[in-house]
Amino acid sequence: QVQLVESGGGLVQPGGSLRLACKASELDLNWYAVAWFRQAPGKEREGISCMGNIQYYADSVEGRFTMRKDNYRHILYLEMDNLEPEDTAVYYCASDRAASCPTGWQNESRFRFWGQGTQVTVSS
């Protein structure tokens, strides 16, 4: 059974940086795509990035967030720079055990497997 576990969340000041990790079990990141979503209070879950053979980023994080993969440890990192209060949310990683990011990857219904989430709070 695929398991995804996020870590690395916390409190950071505006303009700061944070690195999230998504540790995958029973899922070889050399072969399968993984996405990052986030959900702010009172808002719908939003797809922000997806890494398969091509990387995709939402406009809201393009140029500030970067995904990096550790194929040996099966970890997908989300490096977040120049954080803004609007980035405050619970961050999730997700996979559908497919080689590529699906069409419409920003829609949460495209993914079957989810982690439990990690809280990121951007505040002074």
Tell me, briefly, the overall form: globular
Beta-strand percentage?
Answer: over 45%
H and E string: EEEEEEEEEEE
Mean pLDDT: 95
Characterize the structure shown.
- It is a single chain.
- The strands form two sheets. Strands 2, 4, 5, 6, 9, 10 and 11 form a seven-stranded mixed beta sheet that branches. A four-stranded antiparallel beta sheet has the order 1-3-8-7, with no helix packed on it.
- 0% of the residues lie in helices and 46% in strands.
- The chain has 124 residues and is mostly beta strands.
- The radius of gyration is 13 Å and the shape is globular.
- It has no helices and eleven strands.
What are the key terms here?
124 residues; mainly beta; seven-stranded mixed β-sheet; four-stranded antiparallel β-sheet; 11 strands; 0% helix
Topology:
Elements: E1 3-7, E2 10-12, E3 18-25, E4 34-39, E5 46-51, E6 55-57, E7 65-70, E8 75-80, E9 89-95, E10 113-114, E11 118-122
Parallel strand pairs: 2-11
Antiparallel strand pairs: 1-3, 3-8, 4-5, 4-9, 5-6, 7-8, 9-10, 9-11
